[in-house]
Amino acid sequence: MTADHAPPVSAVDGFEAFVAAHDRRLRQALTAAFGIDRGREAAADAFAYAWEHWDRVAGMANPAGYLYVVGRDRHRRRFRNRVAKPVFDVGPGRPEPWCEPALAGQLAGLSDRERVAVMLVNGFEWSLAEVAEFLGVSNSTVQTHADRAMAKLRAGMGVTS
Fold first, then answer.
1. Which burial class, exposed, middle or buried, applies to 20 when counting CB atoms under 10 A from its CB (0-12, 13-18, 19+)?
2. Which is nearest to 54 in space by CA: 106, 16, 111, 4?
3. How much is the pTM?
């Protein structure tokens, strides 16, 4: 957006308040979908889109959920011709892995929907209702994806019970 088309100053305040309120959750959801680095890039793309179209985005019923779709779709277009599995860095460059090292590979093997549901519910401790509202799906859909993901993760890591 050029300076000639910048939103009015009051819109800037609204946008800044929106980012402050939704940045963490949008980054969490896109990180769950694409891994740490690509999730951050997708979130930055989504917020850039929001800034450019703030007059429209600000009036939406679920602007954060809409921006999740924007970030997801832009990321998919960018990496369309490449196999882009999510990367969850647990390597030697980190002082402490954020999870069991084998879990990172298992998460990357889940479907996007399963990975997002299980990471938001079990990893980031969102409620089923919060995930459902954010993604624009039903609670039972989130529960189904999270349950399937947990079953696959347990089986892939040889965990019983």
1. exposed
2. 16
3. 0.81
